[in-house]
Amino acid sequence: MQVAAQLRTLIVGGDLNEGESLGTEAGLRARFDVSRPSLREALRILEADGLISIVRGALGGVIVRRPDQRMTARAAALVLQSRSVALADVFDASAVIEPAAVRMVAIGRGHRGAANRLRDIVLEQKRTIDDPLACTDAMIRFHSEIILLAGNQTLILVCEMLNEVIARAITDVLTRGGDEPPTARRRTIRSHERLIELIAAGDGDAAQTHWNNYMAKLRGSLLGQSAGAVIDPSRHR
Q1: Residue 230: beta bridge partners?
Q2: CATH of region 2-64, choose from 3.30.930.10, 1.20.58.100, 1.10.10.10, 3.90.320.10
Q3: Ramachandran assignment for 168, one of left (phi > 0), alpha (psi -120 to 50 degrees), beta (any other)
Q4: Tens of pLDDT along 99-145?
Q5: How confident is the model at residue 230 (pLDDT cuts 50, 70, 90)?
Q6: In the record, what terms sit under GO molecular function (predicted)?
Q7: Separation CA 1–CA 111 (nearest Å)
């Protein structure tokens, strides 16, 4: 539909910001010179795509919702569930991508600055070492930051989706009492610090090898009995 396509282009193209109002239905009908049924069908399509929300009432209107990783994760989770994909499968995809990204960061011109950014996250991990949820959140951010520092936009999108799915599953385990002891978190922090040393030195091969080994160990300790669990879209609303 032409109206839906035009609005989608505006939202996805960045011309409209998150939370910005498109106006009322009456205003949009006048703007696009369409009938009420045609406009409502266009809005239904965009709402189903997660690009708008409709606020009812006198002060209501059509509100822009910018695409983000939660939307991507939700859509991906539905597909993964339909294929009976296990959480371990998602983690294994991340374990393939991250070491390659680590190498990209280490051999990049800004590798020393990248190391400093990762050090800041490690400091947060140490500060929250006795708070399982907060420390785990900082550890997940460490993984996300690696991908951001690699600078490849496609990798960033894919890994945002993967990390969103994995992070929700890990949070579920922690809230059900599956917490690791502080000693385990300290071992993780030491692995992160070693990676930072290799990145700061610009040693791409050693950094990639280290992260390959780390991700292999992390798989068993992190997923545990949840490894075979099928992805649940209800965790990604």
Answers
A1: 86
A2: 1.10.10.10
A3: alpha
A4: 999 999 999 999 999 999 999 999 999 999 999 889 989 998 999 99
A5: low
A6: DNA binding; DNA-binding transcription factor activity
A7: 47
> In the predicted model, is pLDDT for residue 177 greater than 60?
no
CATH number of 70-236: 3.40.50.720, 1.20.120.530, 1.10.10.60, 2.30.30.520? 1.20.120.530
> Is the pLDDT confidence value at 198 over 90?
yes
Query: Whole-model pTM above 0.85?
Result: no
Q: Return d(Cα 224, Cα 217) in angstroms, integer.
A: 11
Q: What is the mean pLDDT of residues 49-78?
A: 76
Q: Which two tokens stand for residue 205?
A: 């091969």
Report, in this order, helix, strand and coil percent for the chain, each rounded to 5.
75, 5, 20
Domain with CATH 1.20.120.530 in the chain: 70-236
Q: Is 84 exposed, middle or buried (0-12, 13-18, 19+ CB in 10 A)?
A: exposed
Q: CATH 1.10.10.10: which residues of the chain?
A: 2-64
Pairing type for strands 21-23 and 52-55 reads: unpaired
